[in-house]
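wait is this the right file?? whatever heres the structure
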């Protein structure tokens, strides 16, 4: 089987947040929950400092700390190396959230609307998103990016990859030396975030400008 991973080109990312919006639209995440983040950072020092955006997703570690500490077995790794949470087994203890060194996990205690000052019922789209979230995720449980497993099983790309206008994200099989992601990592000096943690992330970055 494949071992899927990301390559994110920091030279291409210009912080448009399309990845964040596409993720929310695909996964119906409530207000305050972002599985795909884009964090502003600064590289270098004056007068040569550069503003750099750092896109973040679940790092989909090959040796996930979150799985190792889960007391119920809710955190699992599928045949393609994608780490996911079984909502039927999760008891919301937050142990995995504390163990994840990348802060990739979140918990939703209740649904929060994007329009708290609006009167009356939720608008139709937000009501639909609420219904979808409750059916697939629920409340009081750990949630995280799962590389859009349903889309991947259907032969599609994760929503954030497909939507990125700068083509900063590439998704593919890390175990295939001839895949696009493997070639990009070799030729572009791809690196992992904090490899010293020993979790072996499946998300690689290409250096910034």
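ok assuming it is, sequence goes like this
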């Amino acid at each position: 089987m494949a071992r899927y991973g990301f390559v994110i080109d920091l030279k291409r990312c210009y912080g448009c947040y399309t990845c964040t919006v596409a993720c929310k639209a695909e996964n119906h995440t409530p207000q305050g929950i972002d599985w795909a983040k884009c964090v502003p950072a600064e590289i270098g020092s004056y007068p040569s400092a550069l503003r750099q955006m750092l896109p973040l997703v679940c790092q989909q570690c090959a040796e996930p700390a979150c799985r190792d500490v889960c007391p119920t077995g809710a955190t699992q790794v599928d045949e393609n190396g994608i780490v996911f949470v079984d909502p039927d087994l999760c008891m919301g203890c937050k142990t995995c959230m504390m163990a994840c060194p990348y802060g990739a996990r979140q918990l939703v205690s209740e649904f929060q609307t994007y329009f708290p000052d609006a009167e009356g019922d939720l608008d139709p789209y937000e009501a639909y998103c609420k219904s979808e979230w409750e059916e697939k995720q629920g409340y009081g449980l750990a949630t995280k990016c799962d590389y859009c497993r349903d889309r991947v099983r259907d032969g599609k790309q994760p929503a954030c990859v497909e939507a990125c206008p700068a083509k900063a994200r590439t998704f593919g099989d890390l175990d295939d030396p001839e895949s696009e992601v493997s070639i990009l990592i070799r030729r572009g000096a791809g690196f992992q975030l904090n490899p010293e943690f020993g979790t072996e992330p499946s998300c690689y970055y290409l250096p910034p400008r």
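The chain has one domain: 4-206. so i think its the right one actually
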